[in-house]
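**Discrete fold encoding**
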Amino acid sequence: MKDQHQKRGNKRIAAVRFGLTILASTAAICVGASTAPACSLALVLAMDGSASVDAREHHLQLNGLADALSDSDVVQAIEAVGGIWINSFEWSGRYQQLQQLNWQYLNDGASAEAAAETLRRTPRGFTEFPTAIGYALGYASVQMRQAPRPCARKVIDVAGDGINNDGFGPESAYKAFDFQGITVNGLVIAGPNTIPARYYESFVIRGPGAFVEIAADYDDYARAIKRKLLREIYGSGYAALR
């Protein structure tokens, strides 16, 4: 009889210990989840540095992006979605890609301003190479796969003022590189030429909610990139707006 009571007591102790183990494990998971930085979006920005972009136009692009990242509306959007990871590079020819901003986590005004200052201090890498959009897309795909954390959405943002004229094009890039789960948007600096916008619509953008933002010229770039960032940060429903 005594043995039976002891066995029942041991079973109750084992059950309590098991319950406490499960509770402790659950608490650890919850604490880890609450302390880990949120990741709603991983965003790779690809800036045109080809020969068609002169020094003034490059300055307008680089500082327009920096100003947009630190803009109060964009910071508010970043905070609203719980933070984003961002990466930026300049591209031109087949093998001309210059990292401007390695993966950086933005979740408030201070982190956004730090990223903006890094961009402003980045010297231009290339001035004499053609427009290799396919290679830029391939490079962007590799950068995306190196993001520090898995994010709910993955977006590549390609800016340019012309069509592909060097190496393989976007269609080949999409076949050769991993774009699973990635949306590719475009920002076209149009000027009087309507061909680049049509080219981006037909061949560059890809994925759910993908869109092309149009800047009338380089002086309009800052406005366009801010609007584009807002659409991308808030998500596909916002991005689908025309």
